[in-house]
Amino acid sequence: xxxxNILTTSRIIMIPVFVVLFxxxxxxxxxxxxxxxxxxxxxxxxxxYLARRWDQMTPFGAFLDPVADKLxxxxxxxxxxxxxxxxxLTLPAMIIIGREIVISALREWMAEMGKRASVAVSFIGKIKxxxxxxxxxxxxxxxxxxxxxxxxxxxxxxxxxLTLWSMILYLRAAWPDLFPRMIKE
Length: 185
Known about the structure:
Structural class: mainly alpha
Strand content: under 5%
Number of domains: 1
């Protein structure tokens, strides 16, 4: 167990803490849950940076890092859907969660075929992740129907648009392997 793996594991441990803080009946619950999510977002960046910088990449970290990221984002979006209970926020949240499931399955399938590199993380994915994390932090920190919450929703739509775009790029890269007969004909 190295520091990058400890940071990754800490994100999973933060999930129940985040949920409990979100639902604590106190005036500070939104800021506390947003702070925990922001801390998780920082550890997401930091664990990868340190693993590469210190050459401490491990199979365990390669497996757990994307799992921790997707769990934290999906749980945060789920509590926000419940909190806002409207289509305006639910639609981009569903797009983001759905894309993560599709791309995770695609990466697993491509890895089984020995072609994991053809669906590697792209620069668009990094921008999408940054917009997504910032929007979720804004939405968590502010009650629904406020100006800052509105900015968070706009950012979430931007993230969802990039999510669809990056999914299309991933699917295009995998297309020849998904439909080999169509390509040959």
